[in-house]
Amino acid sequence: MKCLVTGGNGFIGSKIAEKLNCESYDLKLGDDILDENNLRAALRGTDVVFHTAAKISVPESQEKPDEYQKVNVEGTKNIVKLSDAKIIFSSSAAVYGEYDRKVSENDDLNPESNYAQNKIDGERIVSKSNGISLRYFNVYGPGQSKEYAGVISIFIEQALKNEDIVIYGDGNQERDFVYVADVVEANISAMNYEGNEKIFNIASGKSVKIKDLAEKIIELCDSTSKILYQKPRNGDIIYSCADVSKAKSELNWTSKTDLEIGLKKTIEFFK
Questions:
Q1: How far is Cα 119 from Cα 92, in angstroms, rounded to an integer?
Q2: In terms of residue numbers, what domain contains 250?
Q3: Is 99 an annotated catalytic residue?
């Protein structure tokens, strides 16, 4: 079986390429997926495409909507158009918007950014082909960028320097974090999946308050950092957590890495 990873120099894509010894196609920002000639050649004979290439900054997507549309949506169209391979598409929990409970794949979508809408459009494109969309919640782990589940990497950097850890709001916001190695396993499960379902939440299914996360990181870093609370930012979601029962029943996948263990591994990477 021949596999190809788009975005193979990115956080998740690089881990998939390393795990499966896949060929990595393009750079992290994904611009090369717009080059149809090169893409066609790379896709020739490919059985599975792990499509992780994308522009990922939510604020930037509001400032540069055309650029994000071009890479994230038109690039995905190119892959579907040029290949009959099975596509595993990296989507996002951003498609759900604000909920005060765990969300399932059947819940209504409420995109609050151009980035979120790009992911919805990508899911629809992939669903018309031989494809599966994985809605990642907050992925973290060694090698993550500040844009990707950035709160953990930012907190760790601040804690290791014994700097104040800044939390916007009261810290009671809750997030569902999933370790990157578990996300790689979810991609492998999707690759091997032969059922009819097209969309899966990929998350731990457990939420943690941001202030508790900060306190745990301070403890694990043996840091003297203090938590500094600032005014909430516009558009920040208060609660985000996934119902992962569908991934468990259909993909036979669950997140196996406890948050504290994952944090310890990530902290070691930053040291």
A1: 7
A2: 3-270
A3: no
CA–CA distance, 125 with 225 (Å, rounded to integer): 46
Q: Which residue is it, tokens 């900054």?
A: 57
Residue 153's CATH number:
3.40.50.720
Stated as kind and residue range, the H or E segment containing 4 is strand 3-6
d(CA 255, CA 201) in angstroms, rounded, equals: 11
State the alpha helices, DSSP H only, in the chain.
Answer: 11-20, 36-43, 58-63, 65-68, 75-82, 114-127, 150-160, 180-192, 210-220, 245-246, 259-270
The domain tally of the chain equals: 1
Rounded Cα distance between 32 and 44, Å, is 16
243's tokens: 């119902």
Could you report the per-residue pLDDT of 183-239, keeping only the tens digit for each? 999 999 999 999 999 999 999 999 999 999 999 999 999 999 999 999 988 778 899
Contacts for 138 with CB less than 8 Å, ≥ 6 apart: 93, 149, 151, 152, 175, 176, 177, 178, 203, 240
Contacts of residue 232, defined as CB under 8 A and 6 or more positions apart, other chains included, come to 168, 169, 170
Q: Annotated catalytic residue: which of 115, 140, 179, 193?
A: 115
| DSSP per-residue letters across 52-105 | ------HHHHHH-HHHHIIIIIIHHHHHHHH--SEEEEEEEGGGG---SS-B-T
C-alpha to C-alpha distance for 147 and 157, rounded to whole angstroms: 14
Instruction: Give the length of the chain.
Output: 271
pLDDT in tens, 16-71: 999 999 988 875 445 589 989 889 989 999 999 999 999 988 889 999 999 999 99
**Residue in the block written with tokens 């994308």:** 54
Q: How many CA atoms lie within 13 A of 158 on its CB side?
A: 20
**pTM value?**
0.95
